[in-house]
Amino acid sequence: MPTSPQSWPLSWIARSHQAFVSGRRTRVIAEALAPLVPRNASVLDVGCGDGVVATLLAGRRPDIAVEGVEVAPRPGCTIPCRPFDGERLPFPDGSFDVCLFVDVLHHTSDVTQLLGEAARVARSCVLLKDHLCESTVDHGILRAMDWLSNRPHGVVLTYNYQSLTDWRRHFATCHLQAEQLSTALPLYPFPFSLLFGRGMHFVAQLRRL
Fold first, then answer.
1. Global confidence as pTM
2. Has residue 60 been placed in a domain?
């Protein structure tokens, strides 16, 4: 069924975000993730969206194979993608070398549910790009960023941001630990980085305890 046209403010926001933010963001994230993927890995991108990050990642790592799952697969997704219910991954244990989340878990109501599913399905590691929220100021900025980037696409917004302490608790609950975790992600150019960067974004490689 075709979707209804966006109202002009949302369509303008979507075009502006694509022009000024999205391209740089996807490139930086793919560059940060590429060294963390094992050689010749099969990768499942959970909540892959339009597939652009996964496609850029595969372009930097031609030895890997990537596919995705999404609650509402987009018709123009650039990687093979199948639907799932948002809670349980439709694969047996150890089906992929790597499970990947890019700004997905803060859209869930239960972080450990989906993270635990990734730990079940991944043989080698779980790769995670998400946010760090250490204050009410962080929460307000992240909430505004989320609305601007996702509301035009109809993404469900739960604003379920986690602090580093929260994330470490989720990792432990899922029997994972962060072997690498970095907040050095230059997603935004100066001076926008002073407001929208501020250590609120991280990439992590998680392995089983």
1. 0.86
2. yes
